[in-house]
Amino acid sequence: MSPASSCCVLVAGSANLDFVVRASHVPAPGETVLGRELALFPGGKGANQAVACARAGGAPTRMLLALGDDAHAVPIERSLREAGVEPHIVRVADRATGTAFVCVSDDAENAITVAPGANDALRGEDLPDLSGVGHLLLQLESPLAAVEAWAQRARAAGVRVVLNAAPARPLPSSLLDAIDLLIVNEGELAVLSGIDGDLDAALACIPTRGVVVTLGAHGCRARLDGEHLHQPAFAVSAVDTTGAGDTFCGTLVAALARGLSFAAALRRACAASALACTRAGAQASVPSHDEVERWLGEAAPAPAAVTSFPLQA
């Protein structure tokens, strides 16, 4: 991807207050698990990605979000501003601020239930002026009609549109046609492509110009303009994987907005995501630009190599 005309990133999407409890394991259906400590963290995929983008450095970051007129909104707005995000807030008086209930197991896996609240009040017309914006980063925790309207308006304005298609759901072609780069995990890729177990085939049938699939401990795979890329993961001792995918998305878009090559942006995003797994919380775990720089400088050279190979028939 060539550099955009502006390095400013606008994130439009969800913001929640996360109620996080640690337990020995994530409960199965019908099971009650006795947890341990409870902690509150600002979260929501949109807000997490905005914080990650701002902390990545070099890309001024704005965010469109909706909050209720309640106490839960306060730490969310504070976290965004402290990270350097300029918020554009739609205040919803008759709905509570979004919340998420997260169970984190001792092996760092998680299960999340979200009550959208004010997030569901966002509409297509809420998107702020796009002057100076080079990239628009979206997710699917906002109403789908609003997401599509934002993408189409940005595409018409010459803004690069990046969609993290999470939570997974089938998407209309009218939305996919407005996307420059799609970011998904393996499950989300299977839902969109209808192909499970064959990454090459699944990547090939996604109609967007570029697509990235995150693979957890195996790093990520990507397709851009007919070429496939593979970035191996960085080895860490995981504490909490909550927010790792959002860290990847925000860091990747910030790197692209700064003009880094696609391969270099993937490497930086994988490093930031790995570091995020070593800390608790979503936004609280997002590393700074300097932390990622030190990590990349100290990491073994093998995991940093991006290999490319032709698209298989």
UniProtKB/TrEMBL annotation:
ATP binds at N185, T214, L215, G216, A217, H218, G219, G245, D246. K(+) binds at D240, T242, A276, R279, G281, S285. It catalyses: D-ribose + ATP = D-ribose 5-phosphate + ADP + H(+). Substrate binds at N16, L17, D18, G44, K45, G46, A47, N48, E141, D246. Activated by a monovalent cation that binds near, but not in, the active site. The most likely occupant of the site in vivo is potassium. Ion binding induces a conformational change that may alter substrate affinity. It is found in: Cytoplasm. It comes from the Bacteria. One of its GO terms (cellular component) is cytosol. The keyword Signal does not apply. Requires a divalent cation, most likely magnesium in vivo, as an electrophilic catalyst to aid phosphoryl group transfer. It is the chelate of the metal and the nucleotide that is the actual substrate. The active site is at D246. Keywords: ATP-binding, Carbohydrate metabolism, Cytoplasm, Kinase, Magnesium, Metal-binding, Nucleotide-binding, Potassium, Transferase. Its cofactor is Mg(2+). InterPro entries: PfkB_dom (IPR011611), Ribo/fructo_kinase (IPR002139), Ribokinase (IPR011877), Ribokinase-like (IPR029056). Gene3D superfamilies: 3.40.1190.20. Pathway: Carbohydrate metabolism; D-ribose degradation; D-ribose 5-phosphate from beta-D-ribopyranose: step 2/2. GO terms for biological process: D-ribose catabolic process. The keyword Magnesium applies. Catalyzes the phosphorylation of ribose at O-5 in a reaction requiring ATP and magnesium. The resulting D-ribose-5-phosphate can then be used either for sythesis of nucleotides, histidine, and tryptophan, or as a component of the pentose phosphate pathway. Homodimer. Belongs to the carbohydrate kinase PfkB family. Ribokinase subfamily. This is Ribokinase. The gene is rbsK.
